[in-house]
Design a protein that fits this description.
By secondary structure, the chain is mainly beta. It contains 2 helices and 15 strands. A hairpin with a 5-residue loop joins strand 1 and strand 2. The N terminus is likely disordered.
């Protein structure tokens, strides 16, 4: 679901918790809700706001997939080595969160609808992308940070899945993202004409845009599969902390489909 930010002034990856209500046609159903963008709609819905900030459906969307209860997810038995690695990782997580207690907490809210704004929902009906019109001049629009950079130290929270990205340090430090992991199918990454492949991933470029080829450890918290992916793209990720390219999901014990996501955690040092 990662999108390269090209030929537009920016893509905002900002969301606010508005519950799990599912909005659907007719348009009047949530025309009154236009003070914020809905967190969820039918799977694959695409809307664009008109000159009066009323949503126009470009794609109506389809019924939402049945959600599998978390307690039915198959977990595997870890080897002693894997368990030791998990214990070490969990200790590191505690240390990062302890350090973050002295840092600011910044919550990123959903932008208000603007004329021409397009909003795309993924295969599970959650926010996939928020695209501003190319002539946007009245609202400060944020796009991906320069490659190899990230926001100032702090904890950044956003999205319906309580996503958080913790950044410690400036010239050197650690980054840890916890929340929803998703998948995308783009052809090219965010540098040159790099062709994406299995084992690549994308980060939320507005907050964290490490240099390409950076190794990022991603853990599927639903089943404890872990894999070191290469960061080769960035995207808006309005309701995710990390995006796995296509069939690279198999490294996390999952089978690719547009409606696959997972509870995840990623980490790297810079």
């Amino acid at each position: 679901m990662s999108k390269r930010i090209i030929n537009c002034l920016g893509r905002v990856a900002t969301v606010v918790l508005v519950g799990s209500q599912i909005f659907a046609s007719p348009i009047s159903t949530f025309a009154e809700q236009n003070s914020s963008i809905p967190d969820r709609m039918l799977a694959g819905t695409v809307i664009q706001y008109d000159e009066n900030n009323n949503p126009v459906y470009l794609e109506e969307g389809s019924p939402l997939p049945t959600e599998k209860p978390k307690n039915t997810v198959s977990r595997r038995i870890l080897t002693p080595e894997e368990q030791a690695a998990l214990d070490k990782e969990n200790k590191m997580v505690e240390e990062i969160l302890e350090e973050a207690k002295s840092l600011p907490v910044i919550h990123i809210d959903n932008p208000k609808p603007q004329p021409g704004m397009k909003v795309i929902y993924d295969g599970e009906g959650y926010l996939k992308d928020i695209i501003y019109p190319e002539d946007q001049t009245t609202v400060g629009v944020q796009s991906a940070l320069p490659q190899g950079t990230r926001k100032a130290p702090g904890t950044y929270t956003y999205g319906a899945h309580n996503n958080s990205i913790v950044i410690t340090g400036t010239s050197t430090g650690k980054v840890q993202g916890t929340g929803r992991g998703t998948n995308f199918t783009d052809t090219y990454g965010d540098h040159g004409n790099y062709v994406l492949k299995k084992g690549d991933c994308a980060t939320k470029g507005e907050i964290d845009n490490p240099r390409y080829d950076t190794l990022i450890s991603v853990r599927n918290l639903d089943n404890d599969y872990v894999y070191s992916f290469q960061k080769e793209d960035n995207g808006s990720l309005p309701d995710a902390v990390v995006d796995i390219w296509k069939d690279g999901l198999s490294y996390l014990g999952l089978t690719y489909s547009p409606s696959v996501s997972f509870s995840g955690r990623y980490f790297y040092q810079f």
